[in-house]
Amino acid sequence: DVSAFSHDERSLSVAASSNAPVCLMHMQGIPETMQANPEYNDVVSEVYAYLKERIQMCIDAGITKDSIYCDVGIGFGKTLEHNIALLQNLSTFKSLGTKIHTSCNF
Length: 106
Description:
There is one protein chain. By secondary structure, the protein is an alpha/beta fold. The chain is 33% helix and 10% strand. The protein is built from three helices and three strands, in the order αβαβαβ. The protein has helices spanning 11-18, 43-60, 80-88, and strands at residues 22-25, 68-71, 99-101. The protein has a three-stranded parallel β-sheet with strand order 1-2-3, covered by helices on one side. Strand 1, helix 2 and strand 2 form a beta-alpha-beta unit. The mean pLDDT is 92.
C-alpha cells in the first residue's frame, strides 16, 4: 500500500482480516503533488521512523511481523539525492525486522 494504510481508515482492518502479506511504503505527500518540492531534514531517519510506526500499527491490528514488507518509496516524494541516500542506507532498514522491498517511481 503506497500510503502504508494511511489514506483509507478501513484498509488496515481489511488487510488484517485477509491474512495476506502486506507491503508498507513510505511516500511524502500525495501522488498528485509528491514531487513538487520534497524536503527532509534526514531522509533515512525520517523514513525509518515512519515505517517503524506503521509496522507497529499493523502488529497492533493483528498482522504478524513475518507478513510485513517495507518499502522506502524510491521516487515517491523524494529527490534524486534522497533516493541515493536511501539506497546507500538500505541496510539500516533491516533492523525493522521485516522483509525489505524497493519499488521505483522515476
